[in-house]
Sequence to fold (251 residues):
Amino acid sequence: MTTINSVRFWNGNKSAYRQQFELDVLNLLLSVTAESHGDVSIIDDRTDLPSAKDEGAVLDNGSDVLVTVKGNAKFAGKRFIELALSVTKQLLGQRILFARDDKLNEFSSVEAIKNKSVGVPETWVDAELFRSNGFTVVERGNFDGLFKRLTDGEFDFVCFGANEALEVFESRVANQYPVSLVGGVMIEYPFPLVFYVNADNPELAARLQLGCEIVLETGDYEALYQQYFSDIESTLKIEQRERLELNNPFI
Fold:
C-alpha cells in the first residue's frame, strides 16, 4: 500500500461556509482511517477559477480531490472517481431566494416564482438547470458582483442552498444592499454534493470511501452535519416552506 503524505483539496468557487464544512468532512474521512492508513496533511487550495475550462481541468492539473455537484457538466468526459456520500444531504438543493426589499411581496407563492428571472454567475451549473425548467436566466458576471446586479434590477432573484444562504446573506448582503431572504417559499431540486477523486489516485479514493462507510456507521458524519446545519434548518423554517420542485437534467 502506497503511503499518502498529503492531499491537495481544491476548495474554490464556493461560499466560505461551504469551504469550511467540506474541509471538515474531508478531514474527518482521513482522521477515521489514519490508524490503518497513516496520518496525512491536507493542502486546502481555495483558489477561485472563474473559467469553466480551468475548473474542469483542476484534477488534471494536480488536485487530488474536490467537492462538486453531482453531474457537473464541467467535468463531462473527465476521469475521476466519485464517492458514495451526499456531503450536505439534500440541503444544497433546497434553494433559498434572495430578492430586492421592494419586490418581496411579488414572491408570495411558488406560482409567482415561475415568471421571475434568475441571476446566476457565469459558468455555475445552476444556469442550465434553470433553463431546462423554463426559467429566464441571466448568466453573467461573477459571485462578487451578483447582489449589486440584483439591486440594479438585471434580474428578479438569486438563490443559494439552505446550507449556505445565511452565511451568504451575512457576509455579502446585510448592511450592503436593499436585499432580503424571501420567506415562506423555496425552490427544490436534486442537487447532491459529492467528492470527485483524481482517477490516478485510486488508493486515496478507496481510503476516503472506507472513511465514508465508517463515519456513516459511527454517527460521526451526522454529528458534524448537525453541528453545522441543525440551527440553519430551524432558522430558515425549511419544513414550513412551500416548495417549487424542479428537475435536474444532469443526474
Q: What stands out?
A: The domain at 91-189+238-245 is CATH 3.40.190.10 (D-Maltodextrin-Binding Protein; domain 2).
